[in-house]
Amino acid sequence: MGRMHADEHAIDTTLVRRLVRGQFPLWADLPVTPLASGGTVNAVYRLGDSLTVRLPLTAGGAGDLAKEARILTALDGLPVAVPAVVALGEPAEGYPWAWAVHGWLDGSPALEGRDAPARDLAAFVRALRALPADGPPTRRGKPLSDVDTATRRAIEELRRTDEPFDAAAALAAWAEALEAPQWTGAPSWVHADLMPSNLLLRDGRLSGVLDWATAGVGDPACDLIPAWNLLTADTRHTFREAVGADDATWARGRGRALSMAVIQLPYYRHTNPVISGNARHVLTELGCRPARGGGARLE
């Protein structure tokens, strides 16, 4: 990983040890281990065997910390595990923001293009939607037109790079998504950031879902993005059938996946290989990049 953000705060193991020792002396002697992560908002460290420490990299990420803690303490009845909020730390040792200690969840992050439990993922999405929609609105649950300018700007930026990229195909797919009817049903809970690195697998089953900072109430199409950022054509239709997505919701979900990918790729292509690699996977699945063994179909 390189430095991802111009305003990113320097964080290392020494800082984490000092913060833990100063505020939670009970854990002062536990080993602190940096975790390889594709995350763009927090630096994550394992603390002993049963805890993780999450420190926002920027002021924007710090603003979501309290919201995420409220959401995590309120969730109940999901078929997979979510992180337990164990403690919240305060600014200290030159670190300017609040930070969090969560319970450790066993499992390995999902990987795009590999076998993934489409039915488990659909069951999680449906269970989340079934919860009382009493949470805060999520910015990703708004109409796609809200990100039209940013998406078109990112497509143009990608067009000017050396990425193998079909801008015309991306614009056509984006126009199709914008034309889809908007959500008129009741808002529902959405995670809104179901990237593969936020999905934990154990023994081939979905066991946990991480990173709830963007969660809230909005358009359920937000949580269809794994159809393109994780799954392949072989399992995509299984997921769609199990999750019960109509044509309009499916089209909006496809547009959301496209928008995220074209915005992520130019920003992270030299600093975050996990996120940029996933963006390339999405664009390939959407037919906007050359695919190994032939072109991808827009589904």
Short overview:
The protein has 299 residues and is an alpha+beta fold. It is built from 10 helices and 10 strands. A hairpin with a 7-residue loop joins strand 1 and strand 2.
Determine the CATH topology of the largest domain.
Answer: Aminoglycoside 3'-phosphotransferase, Chain: A, domain 2
If you average the pLDDT, what whole number results? 91
- Succession of helices and strands: HEEEHHEEEHHHEEEEHHHH
Fourth-level CATH superfamily of the largest domain:
Aminoglycoside phosphotransferase (APH), C-terminal lobe
Radius of gyration: 19 Å
**Ends distance:** 32 Å
Largest sheet: 5 strands, antiparallel
Number of strands: 10
Strand percent estimate: 5-15%
How do the strands of the widest beta sheet line up side by side? 1-2-3-5-4
| Count, helices | 10
The number of domains is: 2
Overall geometry:
globular
| CATH architecture grouping of the largest domain | Alpha-Beta Complex
| Backbone structural class | alpha+beta
Describe it for me?
This protein is α+β, with helices and mostly antiparallel strands. It folds into two domains: 13-105, Phosphorylase Kinase, domain 1 (2-Layer Sandwich), CATH 3.30.200.20; 118-285, Aminoglycoside phosphotransferase (APH), C-terminal lobe (Aminoglycoside 3'-phosphotransferase, Chain: A, domain 2, Alpha-Beta Complex). Helix content is 38%, strand content 14%. The chain is built from ten helices and ten strands. It has helices at 13-23, 59-63, 65-74, 118-130, 148-159, 167-179, 226-229, 233-243, 247-268, 273-285, and strands spanning 32-34, 42-47, 51-56, 85-89, 99-103, 108-109, 188-190, 199-202, 205-209, 216-218. Strands 1-2-3-5-4 form a five-stranded antiparallel beta sheet, with helices on both faces. Strands 6-8-9 form a three-stranded antiparallel beta sheet, with no helix packed on it. A two-stranded antiparallel sheet has the order 7-10. Strand 1 (32-34) and strand 2 (42-47) form a beta hairpin. The two termini are 32 Å apart.
